[in-house]
Amino acid sequence: MRRSLRSLLVATAAASLVVPLWAGTAANAEPPGFSHADKDTLRNQAPRDLAIGSAVWAQRDLLSYDPAAPTELQRVLGAQFSSVTPENDMKWDAIHPAPDVYDFASADALVAFAEANGQEVRGHTLLWHSQNPAWVTAASSTWTCDDARAVLEDHIRTVVGHFKGEIYEWDVANEIFQDNWDAGGVRLRTEANPFLRACADDPVALIGDAFRWAHEADPDAVLFLNDYNAEGINEKTDAYYDLAQRLLADGVPLSGFGAQGHLSLLYGFDTSIQANFERFAALGLKVAVTEADVRIPLLDGETGPTPAQVAEQAARYDAMLVACLNVPACSSFTVWGFPDANSWVPAVFPGEGWATIFEDDFSPKPAFDAMLASLRDATPGISPRRG
Ligand code: XIL
To answer: Which of 120, 169, 175, 278 is catalytic?
Structure first.
């Protein structure tokens, strides 16, 4: 059985003998680290059918988790979020460091944290061109398509099988399309992705089988395509829309489309997110915002953003969340870690930062306040969403 808050509650209601670890009297029937004194949190205000998540790097932040003495990050993570995504811990280089070696230690720590805090887990990711181990990069130079298929099938069956029943959504294929500024334009990454490269004659067949292997290993998980620059309607999401239709026509168990939501104030804001989600939902897919952050260009010597930048950041986080709230098929909204000191942004986008919804002292930013207000407004039975 899927060990999630929802299934625990159902199980507890159905059979009083099934008692979650954190159950107790009515007053404390919540997991440790879960601030039951404060119901005004993202997770508590969200509609019941929308998970509110954060990425967390378990290897760095969860290995020493003690439910009786959580760090401030762990306390806020447990209190505010109903879903967690391993920021790095389920990627190939972390979980499959050598051909015959799987290392589940930090990913297992994340799943244990989620269970202790009544949270669900988003799996990330199974087929990607980045953060592959050196052995994959080396071996792939001589792979035939059959070689690549065998390696990918073993990986997907082993990893998805290990977490069977623990993961509600899996990012099966991540960033498999190039951008329109890449050489060759928007097309499948048959150069950068070693698996797609080995199967460049028919990459769609490989992608379809990746979903089939994942579905066989965990039939209950919702299986996602996931990418950046995939929020609005654009050339890249048009390509995903075509691919999704083709996979579905082939009977592939594709069941979700994820927009990462990595935005920057250096660029304009695309207001077609809801329309984009609606077209994927019309195919019968779940949709999600999977990695939201909004980075801000910071001038040399500046300690923080201007009030206008702070307000614009809040507006963009909120607009992504509202698009999700307005589309009933939107099943999860995840921010890509916090606080700013933990963000991937400064290392990858020099000169940009302040991208998360919590300051380094864990005080909430206006972006957090705006999201909380929208979640309050969207409580099932009020508007616009029913749980
Ligand atoms: C990032 C992590 O946040 C970093 O810690 C890591 O060094 C690089 O990867 N798209 C994705 C995520 O799908 O996996 C990436 O995460 C951010 C971009």
So the answer is: 175
